[in-house]
Amino acid sequence: MFDTMTFTKIIGGFCGAFLVYLLGGWAAESIYHVGGKGHSEGEERATGYVIEVAEAEPAEEEEEVDFATLMESADAGAGERVWSQCRACHQLDQGANAVGPYLYGVVGREIGAAEGYSAYSGALSEAADVWTPENLYNFLENPRGWAPGTSMGYSGLKDPEDRVNLIAFLDATDE
Fold first, then answer.
1. For the chain, how many structural domains are there in total?
2. Is 106 in contact with 170 (CB distance < 8 Å)?
3. pTM of the entire structure?
4. How confident is the model at residue 2 (pLDDT cuts 50, 70, 90)?
5. What pLDDT score was predicted for residue 40?
6. Model confidence band, residue 22 (pLDDT cutoffs 50, 70, 90)
7. Domain that includes residue 166, residue range
8. 110 backbone dihedrals φ, ψ, rounded to 5°
9. 126: pLDDT confidence band, cut at 50, 70 and 90?
10. Which of the residues 41, 74, 98, 123 could staple to 168 if both were Cys, CB 3.0 to 4.6 A apart?
11. Strands, E, within 43-162: which ranges?
């Protein structure tokens, strides 16, 4: 089955493949190193091609939005549409807790004081005492940033108008 000619062909195939591998490495080395041949031993070789890029201009800073001005223009009707994002974990009916505590009368309520809800994380109590509109505004922007360690998994509302509209809606539910 294995004669001398078959064995010679197999060895020749491996040697040929190794030669192609070495030549490919040599070609890639000369293509991707700037300058290729002619560098002396002590000379440092730069790899790749340098792409010149213009200096980026600094991004304009976002102007700070005044909370009081936003609250004056808050729309509870628009806040009801934003409420749909909260509905998955919270209820509006007093005492109707779900995954999260009920939000009836949350504006002005002590933090961690929803009747019948005991799964509060200690992080909320450490952040503030009462759910003032300002505290809700900051919490809704980034819950984990405002109260690190909170069990609320929501990433937050980035639009300031959505936050104040939601606060106005929540505040109107207990009237």
1. 2
2. yes
3. 0.61
4. confident
5. 53
6. very high
7. 67-172
8. -65, 145
9. confident
10. 74
11. none
Residue 40 lies in a domain: no
Alpha carbon distance 108, 160 (integer Å) = 20
3-state secondary structure of 100: coil
- Give CA angle at 19 (15, 20), nearest 5°: 120
Residue 93's nearest CA partner among 81, 101, 102, 83 is: 102
* Residue 13 near residue 21 (C-beta atoms within 8 A): no
Distance CA 169, CA 71 (A): 11
The Cα 77–Cα 135 span in angstroms is 21
8 Å CB contact between 166 and 140: yes
Contacts of 154 (CB under 8 A, 6+ apart): 85, 86, 89, 143
- At 33 the three-state DSSP class reads strand
| Structural tokens at position 12 | 């020749």
Residues with Cβ < 8 Å from 158, sequence gap 6 or more?
Answer: 141
The token pair that represents 152 in the structure block: 């609320």
Residue at 38 is within a domain: no
